[in-house]
Automatic annotation (TrEMBL):
Family, as annotated: Belongs to the metallophosphoesterase superfamily. Purple acid phosphatase family.
Domain Purple acid phosphatase N-terminal: residue ranges: 100-189
EC number: 3.1.3.2
Organism of derivation: Zingiber officinale
Domain Purple acid phosphatase C-terminal per the UniProt entry, residue ranges: 423-487
Protein name: Purple acid phosphatase
Pfam families recorded: Metallophos, Metallophos_C, Pur_ac_phosph_N
Keywords: Glycoprotein, Hydrolase, Iron, Metal-binding, Signal, Zinc
Coiled coil: none
Catalytic reaction equation(s): a phosphate monoester + H2O = an alcohol + phosphate
Domain of life: Eukaryota
Iron listed as a keyword: yes
Length: 503
C-alpha cells in the first residue's frame, strides 16, 4: 500500500486522535505518493565481461548472433561484392567481423535511418544493402567509418550509413558487413507525421550494463507495442572503469544490439558521456559518444549533436543537452528559442522534451543540478505547453504534478513551484539499473510538486492514441517480472477536444 509522503510520520504520532484531527492533517499533506515498495538497496554489479550478452562467438574476427543462414542465395545476385551463396557461406564461417549494430532516426520527419555498426579487425565495407523484401535487398547506401583512440584504447572501425528516402510505415530489411560477413536485421519506419497518428515510445535511462540493466532491457523488449526508445542519457558507464576503459563501450553496444538494431533509439547525452579525463590526456569531451552515436542534428538546424529535434508520428521531440552551455546567447539557447515556435501542434500535437539532469527532483541525489537549466528554459516550456519532460540522472523514478516556478522572485519571496496547467509533467526515469545502484534517499516531506516516487528500476511506455489522449505507464522491475507501478492519462492541452487547436 502506498503512503502519503509527509503524512507517514505525523500519522505515526497522531494515530490515536479522532477523525476531526485526522481531517486536520490533510492540510499538512502537501506531497503526493511515495511508494512503499522497497527494492534491495545493495549496489548492483556489472555483468562480467564474459557474459553471454556481451559474447563474440568463437572464430577469427567473429560476430555475435550471426544470421547468415537466413540469407537467400539470390540476395546478392545483383552485386559484385559476393557472387554466390557459396561465397557468402564461406565468408560467414571464416571471416566474421565483429558487429554492434544500432539505428536511429536519420532526418527530421522519419524517412531516413542512420545505421551504425562496428567492425573490429579491419574496416570492411561501410555499405548497407536494404529493401522491403528480406530476399531482395535491392537498394544500397554508402556510409563512412571513423575510429578514435582513448588513452591506451583504440576503437574498432565505427561505420555510419544513412538510408534516405524511405517510405513511411514500411518494414525494411537491411544487411551490413557485406564484404566479409553478412548480418541482416530489420526496422519499421514510422507512419507519416500527422495529427492523429498513434505511436508508442519506450523510455529508458541510465541503463549501464549490470544484471539489473539486463532485466530492464528484457522487460522493455517484452512490451510488444513499443516502437522507438527515447533514451534520456548515460549509456555504458564505461567511465566507472579505470581510465574509462572503452572496452565497456563495446560491451554495451553488443548488449543493447538486440533492441537497437531493430528499432531506433533517440539519444540524449548524459554526464557519463562526457569522458573528460585530463589526467590521462583525454581532453575532448564526449569523444567516444560522438564517434559512436550519430544523430540527425543538422536536420533541425542544430550546430552540435547534443541538442536537436525530430518529428515522429504525432510527436515532436526536442533533445536538450544538460552538459553543453545553455546560458543566454549560447548556441543551444539560441537554437531552442527559435525551435519552440516552429512546433506546429496542428501537425504534431504532442511536444516531448528529453534531457538528462531533472529540473524537479525530490531525491537527495543530484538535487538542484538541473536548476540552472530550469531557470533558463522553464518559461518557454510553459509558454509552449510542453506536454512532458523526461529526464534521467537520478537512479530512481519520479513523476511530478503539472507545476511551474516561472513566477520565481527571490526578492518577493516567491520561491515555491505552483500548480500550472500550462506546465509539463516532469518524469525522472534514470532507473535503468546501472552499476551505481539505486537512489533511495528522498527528501522529506515529499514536496507538493512530486506526484509519485519510488526507488526501483524499470522503464516506461508513452502510448499516444490520438491528438487528445496518450497513456503513460511506468513498469517496475519487480522480482523478475515487469509490473505497472505508476500510470496516468495525458490529456492534450492544445486539443481538449478534437475540434479545435487551442495552442
Ligand atoms: Fe547521469
Amino acid at each position: 500500500m502506498a503512503l502519503r509522503g509527509d503524512c507517514v510520520m505525523r500519522l505515526g504520532v497522531r494515530v490515536m486522535l479522532a477523525a476531526v484531527v485526522a481531517a486536520g492533517l490533510v492540510g499538512f499533506c502537501r506531497g503526493g505518493v511515495t511508494s512503499s515498495f522497497v527494492r534491495k538497496a545493495e549496489k548492483t554489479v556489472d555483468m562480467p565481461i564474459d557474459s553471454d550478452v556481451f559474447a563474440v562467438p568463437p572464430g577469427y574476427n567473429a560476430p555475435q548472433q550471426v544470421d547468415c543462414l537466413k540469407l537467400s542465395p539470390f540476395l546478392f545476385s545483383e552485386f559484385s561484392v559476393i557472387s554466390s551463396f557459396f561465397n557468402i557461406w564461406v565468408n560467414c564461417i571464416s571471416k566474421f567481423p565483429s558487429l554492434k549494430v544500432h539505428i536511429t532516426q536519420g532526418n527530421h520527419v522519419g524517412t531516413s535511418m542512420i545505421i551504425s555498426w562496428v567492425t573490429e579487425n579491419e574496416p570492411g565495407s561501410s555499405e548497407v544493402l536494404y529493401g522491403t523484401h528480406k530476399d531482395k535487398l535491392d537498394i544500397s547506401a554508402k556510409g563512412k567509418y571513423t575510429r578514435y583512440t582513448f588513452f591506451n584504447y583504440t576503437s574498432g572501425y565505427i561505420h555510419h550509413c544513412t538510408l534516405r528516402r524511405l517510405q513511411y510505415d514500411t518494414k525494411y530489411y537491411y544487411a551490413v558487413g557485406i564484404d566479409h560477413t553478412v548480418r541482416t536485421f530489420w526496422f519499421t519506419t514510422p507512419p507519416k507525421v500527422g495529427l492523429d497518428v498513434p505511436y508508442t515510445f519506450g523510455l529508458i535511462g541510465d541503463l549501464g550494463q549490470s544484471y539489473d540493466s539486463n532485466i530492464t532491457l528484457t522487460h522493455y523488449e517484452s512490451n510488444p507495442q513499443a516502437q522507438t526508445v527515447l533514451y534520456v542519457g548515460d549509456l555504458s558507464y564505461a567511465d566507472n572503469y579505470p581510465n574509462h576503459d572503452n572496452v565497456r563501450w563495446d560491451t554495451w553496444g553488443r548488449f543493447v544490439e538486440r533492441s537497437t538494431a531493430y528499432q531506433p533509439w533517440i539519444w540524449t547525452a548524459g554526464n557519463h558521456e562526457i569522458d573528460f579525463v585530463p589526467e590521462i590526456g583525454e581532453t575532448e569531451p564526449f569523444k567516444p559518444f560522438r564517434h559512436r552515436y550519430h544523430v540527425p542534428y543538422k536536420a533541425s538546424g542544430s550546430t552540435a549533436p547534443f541538442w536537436y529535434s525530430i518529428k515522429r508520428g504525432s510527436a515532436y521531440i526536442i533533445v536538450l543537452a544538460s552538459y553543453s552551455a545553455y546560458g543566454k546567447y549560447t548556441p543551444q539557447y539560441r537554437w531552442l528559442e527559435e525551435e519552440l515556435p516552429k512546433v506546429n501542434r496542428s501537425e504534431t500535437p504532442w511536444l516531448i522534451v528529453l534531457l538528462h539532469s531533472p529540473w524537479y527532483n525530490s531525491y537527495n541525489y543530484h538535487y538542484m543540478e538541473g536548476e540552472t537549466m530550469r531557470v533558463m528554459f522553464e518559461p518557454w516550456f510553459v509558454q509552449h505547453k510542453v506536454d512532458v519532460v523526461f529526464a534521467g540522472h537520478v537512479h530512481a523514478y519520479e513523476r511530478s504534478n503539472r507545476i511551474s516556478n516561472v513566477a520565481y522572485n527571490i526578492v518577493k519571496g516567491k520561491c515555491e513551484p505552483v500548480a500550472d496547467e500550462s506546465a509539463p509533467v516532469y518524469i525522472t526515469i534514470g532507473d535503468g539499473g546501472n552499476i551505481e545502484g539505486l537512489a533511495t534517499n528522498m527528501t522529506e516531506p515529499q514536496p507538493s510538486y512530486s506526484s509519485f516516487r519510488e526507488a526501483s528500476f524499470g522503464h516506461a511506455i508513452f502510448d499516444i492514441k490520438n491528438r487528445t489522449h496518450a497513456y503513460y505507464a511506468w513498469h517496475r522491475n519487480q522480482d523478475g517480472y515487469s509490473k505497472v507501478a505508476d500510470s496516468m492519462w495525458f490529456y492534450n492541452r492544445c486539443w481538449k477536444s478534437s475540434e479545435e487547436n487551442q495552442c
